[in-house]
Structure formats: C-alpha cells, structure tokens
Write a structure and sequence with these properties.
Structural class: alpha+beta
Number of strands: 17
Strand content: 25-35%
Largest sheet: 10 strands, antiparallel
Shape: globular
Distance between the termini: 23 Å
Length: 340
C-alpha cells in the first residue's frame, strides 16, 4: 500500500513515520539525533521524537527491464502535537489539497531544528490523524492512517522494506528479470536480517473525512491541456467531460470514463493563475491493505500451474510483512546496510 501515486506515497508514508514512537516510549530518540531536544519557539520543554522512513525507489522501461533504483529516506520529528519532515534540498514537491471550504498543502514553513511542517498530528488507538498545514488557516480536512505494529527482529531486510521487489527476485519467471549485478545486490539484502529490538509500523488503511481535489504538479504545459479539456467539455455531444467548480478557488475540467461526474477523477485545473494536473478523491477509505491482498489473490486462475498459484499466494502474503516506519534500532541498521 505504500507504493501509491507519488503524492500519496510521500504523504501517507510521512504520516506513518510521525507516530511510531508514540506507542513505545523506550524508542523516542532518532538514529541520527539521540538526545532529547526542546522547541526553542516555546517556553515549555517538549521531547522531540524522531524516526526515519526508507523506500527503495525503482522503475522499469517499456520492455519491462530494470531502469534504475536508489534509496529514499526521510527523517520525521513529532513534537508539541506537530509533525515535521527533513526533506532533500532538491525536493520541491508540495501538493495542494482543495475542499469546498479549505485550502491545504502537503508541507508548510521550515522549522530551524525539526524540518518542514506537515501539520498537526495525533496518535491514538492505532490511528494516526493528520490535519494538514493551511497557509490561510483552513481547518476540517483530516487524513487517518490505521497502523499495525510489527516485531521484525530476524526478518529479511528486502522482504520488509519492499515485499514486491523481494517477490520479483524470488519468482523472475512471473515478474521481472534483473541483471546479474542487480540480482547479486538484491540477494545480499534479502539475506540480511534485522537485529533484535527492531520494530516497525505497517499501514493497514488510509482514509480522509472530506472530498478533495489534489493539485499534484504545476507546469506551463498544463495550460494547453486545460484549454483542450475546456474545448472538449464545450463541444461534447456525449457527456464525458465535466466542469468542477465546487472546490475552493479553482476551476477544473475532468474526464469521466462512464459519463458520470462521480467518476470524473482526473483532469487539469486552473488555480491562482497557474495550471496543474488534478485528481478528485471522494471522502472515505482511499486504500486498504486487506483489499490489496485480496486483489492479488483474485489474479489467481484455475488454468495456472500449482507452482504459479503458490507463487501468487506468496506475493499476497508478503504484503502483510512490509513496513512503513522503522524504530531507531531498525533505522540504524538500514542506514548502515541499505545502500546503492
């Protein structure tokens, strides 16, 4: 579930990382900063809890051959009810979320000590709730991640960090064949085991409480596409394109594959004299691990060999063994060993 479209891969994964230590007070320090810190902007002393997220980023070309991969990791700090992320200097991704009454961003101002503000955050009863940053003070939008804590001591590094990549390595006859160099490196990561005391959180469900429009990327090219969608909407003889005006301060044109506005999920938008690719998300559950596992099982057909059926079941089962956030012991181990 952590490998969603880019905006949610970043956003929901960051959400997860801010909550891990809340349920384990013995693991409140970071692998890169093992001291208790205080917020200099507040007169009260607040303990800063820090963790790291690790993802293996990779892609395939049109021939389904391996293209490139590297390790992405982000340090998260939760202090005084707020969550902060330490971003790479060249990471300027900052999605905009528009509801009927509010405007929000993935990231806000940068704190001199903790990093870039994500918003207000709470963690209770295995549910992490993030109220994203709003430059104009909007309130109401809330994202919720339901998580499961796992003891990963002795478990495979590769199978934990990336279950799908681990499955590809085990079953190249049904997936992707890598070069000898890549195979050697991945097998080495597969053989590595997390040390005692390693724990993590796995996201099992991700949801929101309000319908919203996500403006994921700004580009001059989208002005041409926005105008193209405008013309298609104006000249259509069969309802396929819809004009969305209910979201705050934005005009969007979206395409619907079934001719209903409810399913007009993707299009282009004009917002404050700039143009964006846009996507609409309904209120409610956005992703669910149990559904992802069932989707993998649904791919199994009667005409498959017993060997392939077992392989597909292994892929589905592997999704239960992944992680989204690592405690300091596990994070330190990954920092030392997961490098490309």
């Amino acid at each position: 579930m952590k490998f969603k479209i880019l905006s949610f891969a970043i956003f929901s994964t960051l959400m997860l990382s801010a909550c891990g230590g809340s349920s384990d007070s013995s693991n409140n320090t970071s692998t890169s900063n093992n001291s208790t810190t205080t917020d200099s902007s507040n007169n009260n002393s607040n303990t800063a809890q820090q963790w790291e997220i690790f993802r293996i980023d990779y892609w395939y070309d049109q021939l389904n051959q391996f293209g490139d991969f590297n390790v992405l990791n982000t340090q998260i700090t939760l202090v005084d009810g707020k969550a902060y992320a330490t971003l790479d200097a060249d990471d300027n991704t900052n999605e905009i979320y528009l509801t009927t009454q509010g405007e929000y961003q993935t990231f806000g101002p940068t704190h001199s000590r903790y990093g870039t503000l994500m918003g207000e955050m709470t963690f209770s009863n295995n549910q992490l709730k993030l109220r994203p940053y709003s430059a104009i003070g909007s309130t109401g939008l809330e994202f919720t991640s339901t998580v499961s804590k796992r003891d990963i001591s002795g478990e495979s590094l590769l199978a934990t960090v990336d279950p799908e990549l681990n499955w590809n390595l085990n079953y190249p006859q049904y997936s992707v064949k890598y070069s000898d160099e890549i195979n050697t490196k991945l097998k080495a990561y597969q053989a590595l085991k997390f040390p005692a005391g390693s724990t993590c959180l796995l996201e099992t469900q991700y949801s929101n409480n309000q319908e919203y429009l996500l403006l994921a990327e700004k580009d001059d090219e989208y002005q041409r596409l926005f105008k193209e969608y405008t013309e298609r909407f104006t000249n259509q003889t069969k309802q396929e394109y819809f004009k969305l005006t209910k979201f705050k301060n934005v005009l969007a044109y979206h395409y619907s594959p079934d001719g209903t506005e409810a399913n007009a999920f993707i299009g282009y938008a004009q917002y404050k004299d700039s143009y964006y690719s846009s996507s609409k998300t309904n209120a409610g559950v956005e992703s669910n691990l149990a559904d992802d596992i069932q989707s993998e099982k649904d791919l199994i057909t009667n005409n498959m060999s017993t060997e392939e059926k077992n392989a597909r079941l292994a892929k589905a089962d592997g999704l239960n063994k992944g992680c989204d956030l690592y405690n300091p012991i596990a994070a330190s181990y990954l920092e030392q060993n997961l490098k490309f």
